[in-house]
Amino acid sequence: MLKSALHWISAVCLLTLSIFTTLVQAAPTVGNTPASVVFLNPGYSDEPFWVGYTQFMQAAADDLGMHLQVIYGERDHRLLLQRARELLEEGTLPDYLLFVNEMYTAPELLRLYANSPVRLFSLHSTLTAEQHQIVGRSRERYRNWIGSLIPNDEQAGYWMAEALIARLDGKPGNLLAFAGVRNTPSSSLREEGLRRALVEHPEVTLQSLVYGEWRRNRAYEQAKLLLPRHPEVQLIWSANDEMAFGVMQAAQEMGRVPNKDIFLSALNNSDEVLQARIDNKVSVLVGGHFTLGGWAMVMLHDYHAGTDFATRGGKDRVETLFTVLDADQAKRLQKRLSSQGYGLDFRQFSAVYNPNIRNYGFSVLPLLQ
Question: 350 — alpha (psi -120 to 50), left (phi > 0) or beta?
Fold first, then answer.
């Protein structure tokens, strides 16, 4: 009788364990508390690109049940580091800190948070090859630096130049270039892409390259000096949209007509630049990288729930998020960016909710469909 009872109890326990295991495997394993994230945003708090960038991140945080706080550096790397120190001294620390290697500040941030429980993630532009030689890579010397996600800025610069040069139909031409900030990896890489295209097209002469520091007014002042000095220039390569608009204003004041006797490129996704592409005032537009922060939130959400993103495409990812947008795509994207929550449910991109995802493969395509 006792043996029979023990067999029955054992069978019930095994059945209960089997049912529990099945239920656990069928549902996402979510952490006990929602992930808290602080993003050290290097831009101005009213800068269209960086504001839109964080809005996309917030949409992802809302869908995934995460807490997001944004701290702006106001384009001042000293202020950004000061605010990072203040965050560390306040006592209530986030689970994750997202940072950008603007003005090459990443090594200092890694050292600052080396002994903290905060996990760090580099976003948008990660450490340079020279910096890696000194501090190592993620999950090496700084174990709490768990990974990175960046766009292929070199490819973006190359695509812009290629599309601009194509406007000449193989004829010789002249080009002016407006890069961003010298000590910023994204600007340097876009410039490398431009120079790669120029090597492939010796018929195009680079007359001058200046640093507009991403600002419309600065590019406008520079263009007022450069355009009269180089009246033969037909092509204007700009590393972002704000500088392109500054050059456009200067050109129009001199009687030049965009997309007729002068062709401008731009990069970004502001409503203004999308409309300029729709109206063919901007001849070449590359965009898509504003989605980067949202995809990083997906990766951190999964990591927090015990699903390491390193197993689905690697801990350090370079995504081809950029695409060359024609007028129809610009119109489609403009509509999606004005819709509630961008018309996306970010849970569909999460491996926690979709265990069959083997490689995230993030892109801007969901917003163009």
Answer: beta
Q: List the structure tokens of 138.
A: 């993620």
Instruction: Give the list of residues 6+ apart from residue 98 with CB closer than 8 angstroms, or none.
Output: 37, 38, 39, 40, 120, 121, 122, 123, 293, 296, 300
Per-residue pLDDT reduced to its tens digit, 309-334: 999 999 999 988 899 999 999 999 99
Domains parsed from the chain with CATH numbers: 36-151+290-321+339-368 (3.40.50.2300), 154-287 (3.40.50.2300)
State whether the Cα torsion 127-130-135-140 is positive or negative: positive
pTM value? 0.85
Sign of the torsion angle spanned by Cα atoms 70, 242, 289, 270: positive
Other CB atoms within a 10 A radius of the CB of residue 281 amount to 18
pLDDT tens digits along 56-65? 999 999 999 9
Distance between alpha carbon 369 and the CA centroid of its chain, in Å? 20
Query: What is the per-residue burial (b if ≥16 Cβ within 10 Å, else e) of 69-98?
Result: ebbbbebebeebbebbeebeeeeeebbbbb
